[in-house]
Design brief:
The protein is α+β, with helices and mostly antiparallel strands. The protein has seven helices and eleven strands. The chain is globular, with a radius of gyration of 19 Å. The structure holds 2-oxoglutaric acid.
Length: about 300
């Protein structure tokens, strides 16, 4: 897959470009199945061990568990790892990176999914700062720069569910990648990329309403956010971030600590399953039904 001259120009001007229908219905279904399986792993291992799985970012919305994201994921999903190397992502990024090969820097699966089953582990969960699943206005380079990554990072946001106005879509402010907006926290060591919310009004933040299987390529300096998902449906987006091969970096620098911790937890959890010290309590199937599942 190659981007046209117009699409390359749009990325240059707006800081993003959206390509619909990159992945087929069968591929999307496989991603949904993988998302469910990963969620089961994270939640059941959390319940088994009584300590939250290091990959899991979960919030408590009025007593209901709200899964915001799981990061990293490639080491627990061969398929999602394969997608991070798919030429439909790498080809356009190579064009946008002036011919340099894209190297994976990190990957995350943003679920924005409220769980229907009564799962409660907030008594030992300490990770969430807010009770909600929104993302404040920020640029990603604000946190990539902590490990010395370059601004030339490009992320691909791949929609696993349709993103609509009700399920907390990502929103972007076109053209903001051309300026280095000051972050609220001036210390680069702790910076999370947040900028002053007053910089842009609600009508300047464009919601990305794109169907499952679409990909948005976006610049690391592009300001974006997303609002809460109150639809009762998940809004899963897989986000891969790549840097150009002319930048040299240590492999998996941003996520290796989380990955190692989660893998060690998951191995203890599997041992508990094998020794019948724990039986899985959370089952992702039946949590909701998607148009695809309803049709089969
Ligand atoms: O998933 C979303 O809605 C926003 C994601 C985002 O801004 C991020 O992960 O940096």
């Amino acid at each position: 897959m190659q981007l046209s001259k117009e699409q390359l120009e749009q990325f240059e001007t707006d800081g993003y470009v959206i390509i619909p229908a990159v992945f087929s219905q069968a591929e999307i279904q496989r991603m949904k199945d993988e998302s469910d399986r990963i969620l089961e792993l994270c939640i059941n291992s959390t319940l088994a061990l009584g300590e939250h799985n290091a990959r899991l970012d979960v919030r408590n919305r009025g007593g209901q568990m709200n899964v915001r994201k799981v990061q990293p994921v490639n080491d627990v999903s061969d398929y999602l790892e394969e997608v991070s190397r798919d030429e439909r992502l790498l080809g356009p990024m190579r064009q946008l990176m002036g011919g340099h090969d894209p190297i994976l820097m990190e990957e995350k699966l943003n679920y924005k999914q409220l769980l229907k089953q009564p799962v409660d582990f907030t008594h030992f969960y300490t990770g969430g700062r807010s009770h909600e699943d929104f993302f404040p206005l920020h640029h990603d380079w604000g946190y990539y720069r902590r490990e010395g990554y370059p601004k030339s990072i490009i992320s691909s946001a791949l929609t696993i569910d349709d993103s609509d106005i009700d399920n907390g879509p990502m929103r972007i402010v076109p053209g903001t990648h051309t300026k280095d907006y000051p972050t609220v926290d001036p210390d680069p060591a702790s910076n999370n990329g947040r900028v002053d919310e007053r910089l842009f009004g609600e009508n300047e933040r464009i919601p990305l309403l794109f169907p499952a299987g679409s990909v948005m390529f976006f610049h690391s300096m592009l300001l974006h956010d997303s609002v809460e998902n109150h639809s009762g449906r998940p809004r899963r987006i897989m986000i891969y971030s790549h840097y150009p091969s002319n930048h040299k970096a240590e492999e998996d620098k941003r996520n290796c600590a989380l990955r190692d911790k989660a893998r060690e937890q998951e191995s203890r959890y599997r041992e508990m399953l094998a020794n019948k010290q724990f039986a899985n309590q959370f089952h992702a199937k039946g949590e909701y039904s998607t148009p695809l599942e309803a049709a089969t």
